[in-house]
UniProtKB/TrEMBL annotation:
This is LptA/OstA family protein. It comes from Neotabrizicola shimadae. One of its GO terms (molecular function) is glycolipid transfer activity. PANTHER family: LIPOPOLYSACCHARIDE EXPORT SYSTEM PROTEIN LPTA. The keyword Cell membrane does not apply. GO terms for cellular component: cell outer membrane; outer membrane-bounded periplasmic space. The keyword Signal applies. The lineage of its organism: Bacteria, Pseudomonadati, Pseudomonadota, Alphaproteobacteria, Rhodobacterales.
Length: 172
């Protein structure tokens, strides 16, 4: 057996053991459940600067951006908000630069996030790291259905579990 294959099998066994331990201790292996959110709640945004383009129906927030919707908090260097000209309702928020999304139970960081507000979908891309109380999962893309409270991590997914520990996440 080659060394890379042996390492891959060992990592898989450790991950499976961690999942089994988490299930035995009453913790479920679910990612994204903390992102369950009512997309109809108001969104409050603060930033250092705001530029509005009425023709394009966009607003660009720059510098220390903070967007809050219910228990969901998003911080980034910049956020582009698209809105409907008919209703003035926000339809999409695209955040770039040191993006961090937090809830009371989970936190995710990435290079970019797109929040389809009307559809209740959040997509994070670029070096995504999702942490929960019992562990962490990393990958290239995180798709979250905020109405259902479900998520899917894809692209070079990696996770580390520490058997016997229930607190604190381990960064992959």
């Amino acid at each position: 057996m080659t060394r890379p294959l042996r390492l891959a099998l060992t990592a898989a066994m450790i991950a499976l053991a961690g999942m089994a331990l988490a299930q035995e201790s009453g913790q479920e292996m679910k990612i994204g459940t903390g992102f369950k959110q009512d997309p109809n709640l108001p969104v409050e945004i603060t930033a250092n600067e705001l530029t509005v383009d009425q023709t394009a129906s966009t607003a660009t927030f720059t510098g220390s951006v903070l967007a809050v919707q219910g228990d969901l908090r998003l911080t980034a260097d910049e956020a582009l908000v698209e809105y409907s000209q008919e209703t003035n309702a926000m339809t999409r928020l695209t955040a770039t630069g040191s993006v961090v999304v937090t809830t009371p139970t989970e936190a995710a960081e990435a290079a970019r996030a797109v929040y389809d507000i009307a559809g209740g979908k959040l997509v994070m891309e670029g070096g995504v790291l999702l942490t929960q109380g019992f562990g962490a999962v990393s990958g290239e893309k995180l798709d979250v259905d905020m109405a259902a409270g479900t998520a899917r991590m894809s692209g070079k997914v990696r996770t580390v579990f520490k058997p016997g520990e229930t607190g604190g996440a381990t960064q992959p």
